[in-house]
Design brief:
Layout lengths: L7 H7 L3 H18 L10 H23 L4 H18 L1 H5 L1 H15 L7 H9 L4 H13 L1
Helix pairs in contact: 2-3, 2-6, 3-4, 4-6
Length: 146
């Protein structure tokens, strides 16, 4: 394999909001783990106890779906953000704030991911190149018209 060709995993990862989905999945998993924390402070009563397990499980599922179904990334990103914010009340302050932050950042990365956007390295190289003859001709044309 040539050095400039990406591996199959890197090519697969580049076609989807991988890091956003991974952070959402990790956030959901962390919130679920804090539900099992052996602390005397952690209390679950009635339906709040059920919601404390249901919301992080849904966040975890949304994270997996973000990775494996990138065409619906906006829907899953918004739903996972709302569910993550809901864990502030239901799941030990959103997994002691760590899981909530992972979920919100992952949701933001997912919603902001654009599949049609070319890689940043190419854009950076293009900006640092001197303007070509077409640019100079366009500038000359606008100067003469004014």
């Amino acid at each position: 394999m040539a050095a400039d060709q990406p591996s199959r995993f890197a090519a697969w990862r580049g076609g989807r909001p991988f890091w956003g989905g991974l952070l959402v999945t990790l956030g959901g998993g962390e919130i679920i783990l804090t539900e099992w924390a052996p602390l005397g402070i952690v209390l679950h009563l009635g339906l709040m106890g059920l919601a404390g397990y249901l919301l992080p499980a849904l966040i975890f599922v949304c994270g997996v779906l973000i990775i494996y179904n990138p065409t619906q990334r906006l829907f899953y990103g918004v739903v996972s953000c709302l569910l993550t914010l809901g864990t502030w009340i239901t799941s030990n302050l959103g997994g002691f704030v760590v899981g909530m932050l992972l979920g919100i950042v992952g949701s933001a990365l997912t919603v902001g991911w654009m599949p049609e956007q070319e890689p940043r390295r190419k854009l950076f190289r293009r900006r640092n190149q001197p303007p070509g003859p077409d640019f100079d001709a366009a500038i000359e044309g606008t100067i003469r018209r004014s």
